[in-house]
Each structure stands twice: as C-alpha cells, then as structure tokens.
Protein 1
Amino acid sequence: MSGTPVRPPGSGRPLHGEPILERAFRVLGAFAEAGEGLTLHTLAARAGLPKSTTSRIAAQLTAVGALERLDNGAFVVGLQLLEIASLAPRGHGLRAAALPFMEELHRSTGQHILLAVRDGDEAVLVERLSARDAAAVRYRVGGRLPLAGTGIGVALLAYAPERVRNDALAGADDAARLRRLMATVRAEGVCATTVPNPLRSGPAVMSTAAAPILDRRGDALGALSLVAPGEGGVRAAARMALRRASLAVSRAVGR
C-alpha cells in the first residue's frame, strides 16, 4: 500500500517512511533504568536504528534538552522530559491526590507502596514509596508492569475494557486464577496474591495486595498496591488499610 512504512526483510534497519517522531521515541524508549547512560552503539542497537540515524536524532534530542550527554560521551535522559512528564494529568494529578494516603500506608507498614495507571495492556508506575529495610524490588517510577503478572496490574485489569481483559486471559498461564482475582477486586475492592520476584537476590516470591481507584462512574483511574517479601501474604489489616486508602483517593480526586 502506498505510503505504508515497510521494513526491509531480514534487516534491523528502520521502516522506510517511518516518521522522524516515531524514530525519536524509539531512541528515548531505549532507556530502561533510572539514571542509565548509554553509548551511541548501545542506543542504536536498542532502538533498532542505524548508528548514523541514531547519532543525528540523539543530537537533535540533546539540543532540545530531551537527552543530555555526559563527559564520557554516553547519553542520559534529560531534565526537559521530566518537566514535560510532570504535567501529565493521569499521572501527576492522581499522584498529588494519592501521595498523603500512600505516605500513611508507608509509615504503618514499612513496605513498598505503589501507584499505577493503565496504559493499553500495561500498567505504568507513577509513584513508589519504599522503606530502607524493605526487600529490593525491580519497580521504578515510569516503568511498565504487566497487567496479568502483578497485583496492581490485576486491580487495573479488573476494570479494563473487555478486549484488554480477554487478551490478558488468553495469554495467562492460569486464566482461572486470574479470573478469580479480578472477580475478587470487583466484589471486595481489593485482592491479594503472590508474584515471582524478578531479582536474583532476596525472596523468590513477593506478597502483594492491590486496590483500584475508581471515579464516580466506576471506571479505574489507577490502583494502589502494597508489596512485601515472602509468600506469607499481606495481612487482613493491611489489605483493609489499602482499601480505605483507595477509597479516600477516589474521594480526593472527585473533589
């Protein structure tokens, strides 16, 4: 079809006709860890672009502050992106309403408290509070999490469009379990489960509880989650505190 981008067969080269903006976002999407510095070679490899193209785009992004270049030549994400991202209403507005209640949960439990929103078939973490002695987890603000593989993802999935739920169930290792968890979220306003710990150190599994944050129409604005080490489960008192916090955030957003 005329005008449709086409990738050369068997090549890692970019799509013919792919807009420059899409290529720029591929470069920005190459960064996976907070504070990560990438060489031009690594940046090009992760973005799937020729080195010359990546160099040109990276220079343009550096000129507008979206990237910064270190003394050793590596590229890092620039502050301009942070300034722009902080204006996102689905993240920043919800975060402002949720933060006081997250801090209260954090003080009372001493564990990780997460806030996320759904973006398509993934959850995007918009805030995380962690105690110094809490078990290490691979969650970062701005990071993406699978809906079916995390407690906070399940809380969002329970209120996602039917197509998103069906896709998640089709790809789930245990669809029956996922259905039960989503039903629990909708019936009780909170669910608890265990998930594998992706880190090599620490416990093999983590216990988590999650609760959706709903608007007046009953749609999910986001979700709160508590993550603790081990498979002992999140205590009932903590689950109820999480549920109360999610309701309080819902009211705060409504105001």
Protein 2
Amino acid sequence: MDDRAEPPRNRRDAGLSTKALIADVDAAADPAVAEVLARYFQLQPGGYGHGDQMIGVKLSTIRGILKPYLRADLPLPELEQALTSPVHEHRLAILCLLADRATRSLKPRTANPQELAAIYELYTRSTAYINNWDLVDCSAPQIVGGYLLDKPRDPLYVLIRSDQLWERRIALVATQFLIGQGQTADTYRLAAEVLDDREDLVHKASGWMLREAGKRVSEDELRAFLDRYATRMPRTMLRYAIERLDPESRAHYLTR
C-alpha cells in the first residue's frame, strides 16, 4: 500500500487563501522599511498619503510573495473585503493580484470576459481604498484600461472629473493599456481636461501618458498636442511629456 500523503485536491486545500496571503505579507513586515516608505509615500500630516498605515514590505517583496497565489483563483468577494484593509501593503498585494488576473482574462488563450468584468466592477466600487500612486499605477492599466479596450470610454471622463485625486489619476493611467494597443485619443482628451488641475500627481500622470503616447504610437500627435497646449500645461506635465524629444525640441517647448 502506498502510504504517501494524498496530494491536495486544489490550491485552497494547499493553504493558498486570501487570509494566508495577508498573513504572508504581514510576516515580511520590517519596521525600518516602514519608516522609509512612510516618508516616500508622504504619510505625514499634510501629505497626500496621510492616514495610511505602512508595515514595511517593498513591492518587489510583495511580487515574490504573490507568485504561488497568482493561479489560485481566490474568491473575488474575499479579495474585495481584503482591499478595505487599513494596511497599505495588504491593498497593494490584492491590487497586484487582481491586475494579474485581469491581464490573464484579456489574453486569447485564457480569455474570461466575465471575470474581467467582475474585477472591473469590484475595482470601481473600491476606489476609496486605491489611494496612493503605487496602488493606482500597478492596477489601473490592466483593470480599467483593459476592460474598456473594446467599450465606450465614458467611465474615464466620469473619473477625470472626480473631486478625488486618485480617481483622476486612475483615469489617466488607465490609458497606458490603450496606448499599448495603439489607441491614444483618450490620452490626449483626458490630458486636456487636467491642464488646470491643482495636483502635481495628476500633472505627473498626464505628462507620463503623453510621453508614452508619443514614444509608442506617434510623436507627431504628441507634437500637435504640445503646439496647442504647451503654454498652458503645468511645468511638471510639460517636462514629463517632452522627456524623450530631442534637445532642441525640449528647449523650444520649455521656452514658449
């Protein structure tokens, strides 16, 4: 008789649960790293991250922790509940996991429109917890941009007109996925909407997406936008947008 242990029937039997994921993140906590991250993400009073809680787990560490969980098909309701955690790194882990699942749902061999829609709906219900730039940037392209790829883009314009800084950044950064598919119209339209935005983190996101659109799709389109709006663009947005242009062009737009 073979007395070897019977293999687990599924990944959840193997201990890969949402609760276990959060416990693994907690086990990697480092108070010294937490102090550095708290400064970097401006958790101090008056900073854009004030009120958040860091336990000190870097993104690279979180990605390593996530590896065995990426194919575990953890229940979306459990992940949505975990996304309400007061701990920044818990939310970062959940968002990275959801972004990976959204990406797999978009690929021809693993296409799953129902799951992609469910992840998108979960995400848009949870924007109150997606409240720092790393949380936005690791998730908005795949989840929001990916879902909207073949759909009307109206949700982006609702987000860009939000009073919430992070929802406006979600709208802009979501277009990174669209840019990768050669679609730049929304990037330029959204950038025009935030020319007078009060937040530097919105200026950075807008300039970053403009730069990506120029680099990956059409420099001529970017130059046309700059010719029209450079004199109105916040300095940060402009500097990000022109970063990959030749020195003469950068000087031209900066001195207009």
